[in-house]
Amino acid sequence: MALIQANNISKQFGGIAALKSINIEVEQGEIRGLIGPNGAGKTTFFNVLAGNYTPTAGTLLFAGSDIGKLSIHERVSLGIVRTFQNIRLFSSMTVLDNVKMGYHARTSSGWLATAIGRRWVFDEEKRLKENAISLLERFGIERIADEQVGNLSYGHQRRVEIARAMAAKPKLLLLDEPAAGMNDTEGQELVRHIRDIRDQGVTIIIVEHDMRVVMSVSDHISVLAHGEIIAEGEPEAIQGNQRVNEEYLGKG
Ligand code: ATP
């Protein structure tokens, strides 16, 4: 069964049809690339998946259940977690504290335990810190744990954002332009991290303009243009697809 099944999803903004009855199925454990020119509808689709937008029409199934009416928070609780095109970290907080925040995303009740007793909070805090540090180690950024996020390079901030998303224990991770602002070396490191995340059983959809990153990391790619899926297939087939080259890749 597909983890995500989007059936005939449309999204209209006044007179603008951002998504025109699109169908996308993503299998459990897959890395799916979503590419297309500016304004194609990629971010709109992410917003529909994450619950920021209600589609004008269509149904959305997650592991076979209709999630179309669930709030953003309910979807996070199910394991649908995203990063943003414009990084949304707490820039005045440290790297470690940002990642610790990620653990609270999945359960809003975390700090209710405060009422239960200080000992519990102390143990919980210690556990959180250990978990957060081991996540930072996985992403190779443990050395900057105590730095303020606002002082970091863009590439580092992107990694912190992914680490924070992973703290929420996603089943489906939506990455919105994770390579933006990264150099080639950072891009290739990102590819390794994304594969590593998938190897832990997380399904990933990645919106990305950096073709080296998206072509090397994706199992399959869906190409959106003018709110429609114009092609779908393995990276090699997409690179050789005439329509995709005319509408997007050839324009680089
Ligand atoms: P980019 O690669 O530039 O991020 P995109 O593929 O993510 O582009 P979207 O941001 O989804 O494209 O935009 C699709 C279309 O919907 C565009 O025409 C955009 O102007 C329009 N649109 C998106 N969000 C809104 C909104 N909140 N209100 C009105 N129009 C919107």
From TrEMBL:
Residues 4-251 form the ABC transporter domain. It comes from the Bacteria. GO terms for biological process: D-alanine transmembrane transport; L-alanine transport; L-isoleucine import across plasma membrane; L-valine import across plasma membrane. One of its GO terms (molecular function) is ATP hydrolysis activity. InterPro entries: AAA+_ATPase, ABC_AA/LPS_Transport, ABC_transporter-like_ATP-bd, P-loop_NTPase. PROSITE patterns: ABC_TRANSPORTER_2. The keyword NAD does not apply. GO terms for cellular component: plasma membrane. Keywords: ATP-binding, Nucleotide-binding, Transport. PANTHER family: AMINO ACID ABC TRANSPORTER ATP-BINDING PROTEIN, CONSERVED COMPONENT OF ABC TRANSPORTER FOR NATURAL AMINO ACIDS-RELATED. This is ABC transporter domain-containing protein. It comes from Anaerosporomusa subterranea.
